[in-house]
Design goal:
It is a single chain. By secondary structure, the protein is of the alpha+beta class. The protein has 2 domains: 3-75 and 90-163, no CATH class; 182-324, no CATH class. 34% of the residues lie in helices and 11% in strands. The protein contains 13 helices and 8 strands. The strands form 3 sheets. It has a 4-stranded antiparallel beta sheet, sandwiched between helices. It has a two-stranded parallel sheet with strand order 3-8. Strands 5-6 form a two-stranded antiparallel ribbon. A hairpin with a 5-residue loop joins strand 5 (140-141) and strand 6. Helix 12 packs parallel to helix 13 (312-324).
Length: 327
């Protein structure tokens, strides 16, 4: 058994079955795309601005020979969105950064038993992870700019391992969207469209920004954090396998939201219930702000009494909301 097969089998024993391999090299072919984003000011505030770091994984691990891309499915049910106020499904379980890190650490330890060295990455890193996943053959990048796998659709988190062991690489998967434009039709801001992707107006991004203009108040339409519109519309997400990673299973309070709890949230409740999720990193104020925006819009004909807004930041948004909706 060669090292690649050994790594794949080890992952399967962990319950991970979507694994691919690509060469660790500078992805210079991405430079024009990233430069265009910078020139046209369509980068988001969370991504790495240094293009060299984005395209060259060797800057993360100089002796790297192979990148292992791994998809972690997170969907446990595909219920239609019934509530008018909701969290994106990726936030429903335990913070994936910690869950995925556990698996990647175990795989890195196994690689060390093979005589290699390895470093792992989850989300908050410079690697172009969707492109790496595409090159590694675990999925294709859809028109909605998400990585779409055959078994789990786009409801996956991605993790990467760079190792100094040279392994046989996989073939990229062909794009399969064809003439379908359902995601374009579903996108509420046309962030994805036939002409040019504009991630800086994606509602998932807007819900996470620290500062948003009043013009966005009318557009959140119930989103507390994230946006699943393009994923729900995608045909490749209709018949997929569900996740078996128990640590990613949904918390009840994330599926069935208490809007009053979110509006009056204090540090104790935040730490106990929301800080442990994938939206916790943005802090209490962002969730409270978005809850206010949605409640004021959806119930603007009701006299809303806010029991506790301790943050000047959130209080500013509350007064802006009252003015925007003439309450």
């Amino acid at each position: 058994m060669d090292h690649k097969e050994s790594i794949i089998n080890f992952c399967k024993n962990l319950g991970i079955d979507t694994v691919g391999f690509c060469e660790c090299r500078a992805f210079n072919e991405l430079r024009p795309f990233l430069e265009n984003r910078k020139i046209n000011n369509i980068e988001n505030e969370f991504e790495e601005k240094d293009i060299e770091k984005r395209i060259n994984p060797k800057l993360q691990f100089e002796k790297g020979e192979t990148i292992i891309s791994i998809a972690f499915p997170y969907l446990f049910d595909f219920e239609e969105q019934k509530d008018s106020i909701y969290f994106s499904k990726y936030t429903w379980g335990k913070d994936y950064h910690f869950v995925i890190s556990y698996y990647l650490k175990e795989i890195c330890k196994f690689i060390e038993t093979l005589g290699g060295k390895a470093v792992y990455f989850v989300d908050s890193n410079p690697l172009p992870e969707r492109y790496v996943a595409y090159l590694s053959g675990i999925g294709f990048i859809g028109k909605n700019n998400l990585l779409i796998t055959e078994k789990y659709g786009s409801f996956v988190f991605l993790g990467e391992i760079i190792t100094d062991i040279k392994l046989n690489v996989d073939e990229p998967m062909k794009q399969k969207c064809g003439d379908c434009t359902l995601c374009f039709d579903a996108c509420p801001t046309k962030s994805i469209n036939k002409v040019n992707s504009m991630p800086n107006i994606c509602l998932s991004y807007i819900t996470q920004k620290k500062d948003i203009d009043d013009s966005w108040f009318n557009k959140l339409d119930g989103r507390i954090f994230g946006c699943d519109s393009c994923q729900i519309a995608c045909p490749f997400n209709k018949k997929i396998d569900k996740s078996i990673i128990e640590d990613l299973s949904p918390y009840e309070h994330m599926k069935n939201i208490s809007i009053n709890e979110l509006i009056n949230i204090d540090n104790k409740i935040f730490k106990e219930k929301y800080a442990v999720t994938s939206c916790g990193w943005r802090g209490k104020n962002i969730l409270q702000r978005n809850a206010l925006i949605n409640l004021v819009k959806l119930k603007k004909d009701i006299n809303i009494e806010i029991q506790s807004i301790n943050s000047p930041y959130v209080l500013d948004y509350y007064h802006r909301l009252l003015n925007a909706f003439h309450l």
